[in-house]
Amino acid sequence: MIQLFKPYMDEEEVQAVAEVLRSGWIGLGPRTTEFEKQLAQYIGVSYMIGLNSATAALDLAVRLLDIRHGDEVIVPTMTFVSTAHAVAYSLATPIFADVDEATLNISLEDVARKITPRTRAIIPVHYGGRPVDMDELRKVVGDIPIIEDAAHACGAEYKGRKCGSLGDLACFSFHAVKNLATGDGGALALNNKSQADRAKRLRWLGIDKGTWDRTEGDRSYWWEYHVDEIGLKCHMNDITAAIGLVQLRKLPRMNARRLQIAHMYTEGLRDLPWLRTPPPDTADSKSSWHIYCIQCEDRDGLNTYLQEKGIGTGVHYKPIHLYTCYGNRPHLPVAESLLPRIMSLPMHPGLSDDDVNYIIDSIRSFQPAASRTGGNTRRPAEMKAATPRPLGQVSRPGELQ
């Protein structure tokens, strides 16, 4: 089976974990501190707070902005449920915005319609690793805080800056199948020192000093700490951080391979009348290509066909506003029209050229239900061009960014 996602690790990660186990310090400690430092430098922010998930990062970001009951936070509906759940954890209300049909990023036009006096933040998601047009978003929201959900976008760039450095705060995921994978984990990126200090306390139950911090400094009361605010236990550990340090070194190479695979898919599928490929990178917007999402007729039939040929696929995502836990459902026509026709193809650095060509050939050999029954075969969305909001010159197929 060609897997949809797959971690890309080797002996380096094994050795890094072995070193931590031999050190005797496997919890929150020096490796976590080093990973935070190196990742902050790579992203281009002042502070990075290592956590056990991106969900924890989103939750902390909402808490740092003191968002609470009665407040509203605008989120895209086409994302993983964590983005909205983090708002609900604070008893605030997630306000679901529609998405752009080509990029699946949040619709800036719908964001403008959804802003009210109770809007306390917006959480744009860089869907699949493609940067949201952050300059235009800032024009729309003014001084409303922006929390970047960069779970898909580690290494992605917008106008020469890394995703995660573009908003007021940013959240990363290091889940097992992410571009930078540690098995699980996350991080919160920010530039405000007081917020960073508070985040460190909140990730460790509100305690003002971690165990590693208490091994240095004044020894007279080394055991004592203060708890002024109730937090959760959601910090990173040194086993996870050791893997992360190795993965961070490999990230540019792994993302370059993802870009090569994306170019192969786009070139191999571009002439099919019943299928739309995602827009390419531009000079100003470089995706990390965590997800390669096509839009196609007879999506379910194609999924079954590819499964029979040993090719795993996925759907990212069912719009969150359709889940019953969020009660009354707004009508978001673009997201709802996308749901029956989006499909994610295998995307990870471990795919060989032969794997990718086999996937392409398999898709090309499929006949959608309409063509099998003599119906009209047309490109999804009435043949509309799949081009994002223009940000610059389109890169050439096969060109590494």
Beta-strand residue percentage = 5-15%
Please name the fourth-level CATH homologous superfamily of the largest domain.
Type I PLP-dependent aspartate aminotransferase-like (Major domain)
Average pLDDT works out at: 92
Provide the spatial order of strands within the biggest beta sheet.
1-9-8-5
Largest sheet entry = 4 strands, mixed
CATH architecture of the largest domain: 3-Layer(aba) Sandwich
Unreliable parts = 381-401
Rounded Rg: 22 Å
| Shape call | globular
CATH class of the largest domain: Alpha Beta
SSE string, helix = H, strand = E? Answer: HHEHEHEHEHEEEEEHHEEEHHEHH
The number of domains is 2
State the CATH topology of the largest domain.
Answer: Aspartate Aminotransferase, domain 2
Distance between the termini: 30 Å
**Share of residues in helices:** 25-40%
Number of strand segments: 13
Provide the structure class.
alpha/beta
Q: What is the overall number of helices?
A: 12
Describe this structure in words.
The chain has 401 residues and is of the alpha/beta class. It has 2 domains: 11-247, Aspartate Aminotransferase, domain 2, CATH 3.40.640; 252-383, Aspartate Aminotransferase, domain 1. Helices cover 34% and strands 12% of the residues. It is built from 12 helices and 13 strands. Strand 2 (72-76), helix 4 and strand 3 (93-97) form a beta-alpha-beta unit. Helix 8 packs across helix 11 (353-364). The longest helix has 32 residues, at 238-269. The two termini are 30 Å apart.
Record keyword descriptors for this entry.
401 residues; alpha/beta; Aspartate Aminotransferase, domain 2; Aspartate Aminotransferase, domain 1; 2 domains; 3-stranded parallel beta sheet; 12 helices
